[in-house]
Amino acid sequence: MPRLEELAAFLNNSVAVRDKLEISRAYAPAVEANLGGAALGDDCAAIPDPSGGYLLLAAEGMLKHFVANDPWFAGYSAVMVNISDVCAMGGRPLAIVDVLWASDHERTQPVWDGMKTAAHDYGVPIVGGHTTITHGAGSVYLAAAILGRAKVLMTSFDAQPGDSLVMVVDLKGSFRNDKPFWNASVGAPPETLRTNIELIPRIAESHWCRAAKDISNGGIIGTLVMLLQCSRVGAVLDLDSLPAPPGIDLEKWLISFPSYGYLLSVSKANQVPVINLLTEHRLACKVVGEVTANSDLELKLAGESIVFWRRNDGGGDYA
Known about the structure:
The structure is a single chain. By secondary structure, the protein is α+β, with helices and mostly antiparallel strands. The chain folds into two domains: 2-27 and 155-318, PurM-like C-terminal domain (Phosphoribosyl-aminoimidazole Synthetase, Chain A, domain 2); 43-150, CATH 3.30.1330.10. Helices cover 36% and strands 29% of the residues. The protein has helices at 2-12, 15-21, 23-26, 28-33, 64-69, 71-88, 105-122, 190-205, 219-231, 250-254, 271-280; strands at 45-48, 54-61, 91-102, 126-133, 141-150, 164-169, 174-175, 181-183, 211-214, 234-238, 257-258, 261-266, 284-292, 296-301, 304-310, 317-318. The protein has an eight-stranded mixed beta sheet with strand order 9-12-6-13-10-14-15-16. Strands 1-2-5-3-4 form a five-stranded mixed beta sheet. Strand 7 and strand 8 (181-183) form a beta hairpin. Helix 6 packs parallel to helix 7 and helix 6 (71-88) packs parallel to helix 8 (190-205). The longest helix has 18 residues, at 71-88. The model is unreliable at 315-319 (pLDDT under 50).
């Protein structure tokens, strides 16, 4: 138990994890305003398309220090993470627009180079946006938005008790510098990136999966809590079962943002075809837990267990 208690304390002290655990408070004003009447908390806004299916609309802002310290990769990530959001809802990305502010053209160039590389490699065009040179602006500010389309929608609101929690991740990569970012994207063959982003929509269209989330900043734990909050369920997560790179500390892996990683809530009847499809494409994919009917996120490790988080009407308590 001490090992598991220490791990829980580490996760609770992670800023990225805590931000995700409390994220429902961040969008509470939008819920109160009832913007568009849509359910909030998903990866994208899903807009019924009169021609069939759904249009998906999402946006991501890049942290100021990230843009300052690694501008090329911040530009690349602005495209990559938006694509992941669309895929997590069973969609295919159509186009990206940017929002970029800086004090001079020279400071925006590496950002643009990163965005253009990602757009080319994933095959998703940048079609416009809002790019402004404002003298005296100081820092570079970056955000991007994406439009996608889903034939069959997966949401964060449809995980059901009894579902298997399935994790898929591309382990063919390495950490970027000393950051908790597992890079299986930059430098990968474009045909591999384009094939992989087709897999989650294929699962949705086969009606094999009810709910999904892409593993984002905040890692596996933060992402799972967001899924549980939206679906109003609990889960047991078996940390011994997580697909992970060899030799990587569990603590670092749990807070890492993989460039290709998803948590899927899959009925037991469908877990075999889901896992088979993903592993056929050289992705690591395993059942890592189960969705439960209670309000707890229970972590299991080496035969021990601990309740790490408990949902309540205010968003969540730490156990």
